[in-house]
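$ fold --in a.seq
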Amino acid sequence: MSEHESQVLEAADNEIVITRLLDAPRELVWEAWTNPEHVAKWWGPNGFTTTTKSHDFRPGGLWIYTMHGPDGTDYPNEVKYIEIVKPERIIHSHGDGQREWFQASVFFTTEGDKTRVTMKHQFPTAEARDEVVLKYGAIEGGKQHLARLAELLTQIRKVQ
């Protein structure tokens, strides 16, 4: 496995932790993660697109969006930001507007001239975690999610 591939880390039985070393400075990774124009180009697993309805990027603010699956299925999503420390971390709850599925913590750590992104998703129970792993392919989807971010960062850096 290359140092730049996504990796699943050991975690509690109700967590998913995925990390990837990105070949870009932390400020650029932060911008790609938080700017809805960039997010629309990479958010989600392979074959998915994302439409943002509203994005209020502040503690207490909401990001309401729909992920469109390759089979045409729409997946409504709602993120409520809990903590934002630029450019270090974002903590938020994640659900569909009806219920909260998990709490996510995303960390952006400088490693030389690169940035490590670590996503930690904490579910209320191990069963809830297992459901999204089995039903939605959450682990592979998370790896693809970070791979698509890496591809976008490569494109951005080429035009800079």
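$ fold --in b.seq
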Amino acid sequence: MHARLPPAFLTIPLAHRGYHDQGQRRPENSLSAFRAAIAAGYGIELDIQLAADGEAVVFHDDTLNRMTTGAGPVLARGAAELRRIRLRHSDEDHIPGLEETLSLVAGRIPLLIEIKDRLDSMTPTSGRLEAATARALAAYQGPVAVMSFNPHCVAEMARIAPDIPRGLTTEDYNPLFCAPLSAATCAHLRAIPDYHRTGASFISHKATDLARPRVAELKAKGAAILCWTIRSPQAEAKARAIADNITFEGYAPESAPPKPITAQHRP
């Protein structure tokens, strides 16, 4: 079953990890960055990690060191403890939980959730993060979709929550930059072989690799094409020649985004 990507994802630019700005003390994946995106009328792309107690928290890195006043693996701490850890370069932010973030967004703009799980090996998932995601989204009203680099995560979401639109995060998988993935694994993933078996309806592809023939092939067969990460109007114009929409950071897309939309049921 292919749950289709809601139309809002094709018309409203998506702020990468929220509309973050370190100079304005709005860290990535923070509530302040999400509030700024909502106020500007942009959609939000964010990352989720698994806490020790099985809850989903909004955070990109495997470890706390870069972005917070804490240290060590995210997975070593429970969600309540993680929520007490402050984000750097912020006056009021903590690591938010997924459910807390959903309450803030409340269906007003499209929300693209990237599942971070076992990406160093691309091996089968434990299913715990996917289960937490499905629980949090079960009653959510508004345009939402999930994606992951790891096709096992997307396949698990298809199994447990088939009505939630899902896609694959994809790229050129250059082995020089994808360690510890093997060259063979990179070659396999580069061909995007898991699109159909995961019931995906879109990909979010690396912007500098959009000219790859496989991207055009998927688009011709009905896949929505998103891309990451756009950092200038010039890069946006080039990407939009192929992609249906962009994930951006560091600037405001030239096209004025629509006003926040009214929450609605998922199809």
